[in-house]
Amino acid sequence: MKMYLSVGKLRFVTGLQYRTAAFAGILTQLFFGFVFIMVYVAFYNRSGAQLPMTLQEVVTYIWLQQMFLGLIALYFRDPDIFQLITGGNIAYELCRPCGLYGFWFAKLLATRVSGVVLRCFPLLVAVLLLPNPYGISLPPSITAFLLFLLSLLLGLLIVCAISLLIYISIFWTMSPTGSTLMVATAGEFLAGMILPIPLMPVWMQKLANSLPFRWTVDFPFRVYTGHIAAAEALEGLMIQLFWLALLTGLGLLLINRALRRVVVQGG
Amino acid sequence: MQLYLKYLSILFRSQMQYRTSFWLLTFGQFFIPFSVFAGLYFMFSRFGELQGWSFFETALCFGVIHMAFSLSECFVRGFDVFSSLVVSGEFDRLLVRPRSTIVQVLGSKFEFTRFGRLVQSAVVLGWALWNLPIAWTPLKVLTLMMMVAGGILIFAGIFILNATLCFWTVQGLEVGNLLTDGGREMAQYPLNIYHKRVTLFFTFIIPFGCVSYLPLLFLLDRTQGHGLLYALLPLAAILFLLPCLAVWQFGVRHYRSTGS
User: Fold this and answer.
1) Range with lowest mean pLDDT among A63-72, B17-26, B121-130
2) Residue A186 has pLDDT above 60, yes or no
3) A129 burial type by CB count under 10 A (0-12 exposed, 13-18 middle, 19+ buried)
4) Whole-model pTM?
5) CA of A181: which chain B residue's CA is closest?
6) Residues B24/A175, Cβ–Cβ less than 8 Å
7) Given a cut of 60, is residue B260 above it in pLDDT?
8) Which of A91, B114, B164, B233 can bridge B210 by disulfide, Cβ–Cβ 3.0-4.6 Å?
9) Do the domain assignments include residue B65?
10) Which of B23, B31, B47 sits opposite A43 (nearest CB)?
């Protein structure tokens, strides 16, 4: 366990070095957040129909998404691992005296967290100061906020487990590009990255509910806005735990299989 | 021109060496904007309309901008990844050759996999046109083509500006993507739904409005006053590209090699 912690710490410190990149990231995310919100404002302006989410909730949802993009976005990938597998350096990794799954998991986790730590606080200050209707709103209660933190953490772990599954699939496909791109795109849509799940048509919602993706984005953010009440949120946390156990279990199983018949690419 | 075609055929052959990967990437490229478009579709099915714009009208706007974007990504990709040329010092080699730097950088890279994206935007565009009751005249056809062409020029201009920045910063900057990706996100909707100042910026400074929103009004016969003016507005993209090229020339003169 200590070993994994120090791997994570090293990665974390490396990630913190890229401060200019973080600054550029903040600008980009502010800009994109604005564009998305302006589109929603335009949609909500003329609409008299009963909508499943208020504009305020959608705006908060978008800012949370921009703030924690690095934590929950599926497409953030570590090119190192791809190269390890396709380039043959996996042999070195196998010499290390620790489990490969845990090692990679710690690595991914730390990369994501370090990327977000630098960005989310300045961004939070900026969006708190914005005037209505563009600013973020505070969670309705302390309980909602605590539940949000917990669900975000679990969501992060689920994202790492899913991306590890994608990496492991490369042992079989050997080509990291096409298939992973498609899984990531579909996954992001079903996670509610393009539009919040309640705004989707019913059949799409059903599909999203039966897959793990929505527990990483849609669920924590709606817990924050209070759109999902505390009792329901507790239930959701259980489901998150279930998916986490399932996905890590599957990942461990597959990686052991892959390693038993691993072919080290030469060179 | 002949040189450029030569570059293209070499690049095409080299990319075709990895055939499976090529097709998978092309296919994947098809899907990325597809999910964005699906989002757009679902939004309209939820809200009905967007400040007086119907789904197909917005889809037309979306199709034009995405088609322009994917084509410019195909052609101008060399400028997009230009920082790698500067970092490695490769750019010195281009400078000693007796051809214009612009042609050489253009020819240094060409992403054929972006065709996936192109096909997707073409489908959207076709679908939108099929469902819109537009009374076609030759001028309208010309305008539509100029909208796409003008869009390509604007994106090309931004790519070139970003690349020029590398002469001073060496590393490429994320901020550049703000104008290309961000501009694409903005311009895929009719611009008048945004805040007034945003609309003005994207009409007069970076003229996305001149290739999407304003000529769109002409296509849909919603113009007030002189229609011809709206029809010819995509030409404004050239006015944007020219200063970008001038800045590039200025940058080349101030280039200092990294010496590696």
Assistant:
1) B17-26
2) yes
3) exposed
4) 0.82
5) B28
6) yes
7) no
8) B233
9) yes
10) B47
Tell me whether residues A35 and B174 touch, CB distance under 8 A: no
Instruction: Give SS3 for B50.
Output: strand
Whether residue B81 lies inside any domain: the answer is yes
- Domain containing residue B9: 2-253
Q: How many domains does chain B have?
A: 1
pLDDT at A96 over 80: no
Cβ contact A24–B50 (<8 Å) = no
* B94 within a domain of the structure (yes/no): yes
Which residues 6+ apart lie within 8 Å of A201 measured at CB? B42, B45, B46
Q: Mean pLDDT of all residues in chain A?
A: 82
Examine residue B232 and state whether it is found in any structural domain, yes or no. Answer: yes
In one letter, which amino acid is A67? M
Residue B136 has pLDDT above 70, yes or no: yes
- Residue A174 has a pLDDT of 66
- Reading phi first (left if > 0) and then psi (alpha if -120 to 50, else beta), residue A174 is in left
In percent, the amount of chain A with pLDDT more than 90 equals: 9
